[in-house]
Write a structure and sequence with these properties.
47% helix, elongated, 4 helices, alpha+beta
Length: 138
């Protein structure tokens, strides 16, 4: 019969003191709190990737920055993605990359608007030089 892990409480987390080596407190269903030797408490979610079939570990920042409730909600979000055969680490990495590309597009739009407003006040050679600065970047 599988071992059932007793869920953590806020009091247990607050009372957890660092030791010589890092150790973890399990909350169950893959969520654990890593207590580092320096006293930092880091939330981790350990799971088997549905796409790579390997064990993976995601971190959810530190306690108390992320509360027990928030860590459990985040772990549930990860479990839902795993249930849909989506690797959460890859999924959130792709979303972050898309966001960066979207922001880059926004910056380019702002620059283009600004450079068009400056066109009348700049010499033609200066205008071309400034415009080439943003468009020559990869």
């Amino acid at each position: 019969m599988p071992r059932v892990t007793k869920p953590l409480t806020e009091i247990e987390i607050k009372r957890a003191k660092p030791k010589e080596k890092d150790f973890t407190l399990a909350d169950g269903k893959g969520l654990q709190l890593l207590i580092k030797a320096n006293g930092r408490k880091v939330w981790e979610f350990v799971y088997t990737s549905p796409t790579k079939r390997k064990r993976r570990k995601a971190t959810f920042k530190t306690y108390p920055e992320v509360s027990l409730k928030q860590a459990r909600e985040r772990a549930n979000e990860y479990r839902e993605l795993i249930f849909k055969d989506i690797d959460p680490i890859d999924y959130f990495r792709e979303k972050k990359e898309e966001s960066k590309l979207k922001d880059k597009g926004s910056l380019e739009k702002v620059f283009n608007k600004w450079i068009e407003e400056q066109k009348d006040n700049l010499a033609n050679s200066t205008y071309k030089k400034k415009k080439s600065l943003i468009h020559s970047q990869p």
